Amino acid sequence: MNKEKYIEDLQEIRTLMDRSTKFISLSGWAGVFAGLVALISASCAYYLLGSSGVTISNYTEIGERSFELKLLCLGLITLFVAIVGGIYFTMQKSKKQQKPVWDKQTKRVVTDLSIPLITGGILSVILLLRGYLGIIAPLTLVFYGMALLNVSHYTRKEVKQLAITEIVLGLLAAVMVGYGLVFWAIGFGVAHIIYGVKMELNAKS
């Protein structure tokens, strides 16, 4: 009996420590939502490629400014919708946990996540507008993976797994440049959905 109570006390202490040091309000459904948005965005990008008379193997040679601006607008819309969805699902989970949405852990995650994301985003826009379309997919995947890895120490363990997945996909996309859009869809779409569902299942177990 004493042993069982001791184990329960240890589990309670560990839970309290996690709540005070880790960002545990991250919702897996936010990842699923972001993944679905990314897949829709990738489909739209593929349509734009097709309507421009470009094949998946030679899209790296595009130099049309109008096409680049369309992709830029599509990327910004995708990012905005994914962020709004992430905020919504995180707020819902915080309410269920009866925790403030904006606390010390949230500030730390947002800060450490934003620095590599903003850096990678600005670099991607510069290269896109200069016509280097072929390296945008690997660049965004790698920078996103590094951003996730940057915050993985004080959030859910699935985040680190997703980070490594994104980095590997980014490196593969750099090798197979003509298939960057496919790797982008897998990384930002399929991987988000898989790890989002996994995160929710682990949270309930």
Structure description:
Keywords: Membrane, Transmembrane, Transmembrane helix. With 205 residues, the chain is mostly helical. The longest helix has 33 residues. The protein is built from seven helices and no strands. The protein has one domain. 80% of the residues lie in helices and 0% in strands. The model has no long low-confidence stretch (mean pLDDT 81).
Number of distinct beta strands: 0
Summed up, the helix count is 7
Structural class: mainly alpha
| Mean pLDDT over the residues | 81
Secondary-structure element string: HHHHHHH
First-last Cα distance: 24 Å
Query: What fraction of the residues are assigned to beta strands by DSSP?
Result: under 5%
- Overall number of domains: 1
Taking the sheet with the most strands, its summary is: none
Shape: elongated
Considering DSSP H and I runs of 4 or more, what fraction of the residues is helical?
over 70%
Integer-rounded radius of gyration? 19 Å
Q: Any low-confidence stretches, pLDDT <50, length ≥5?
A: none
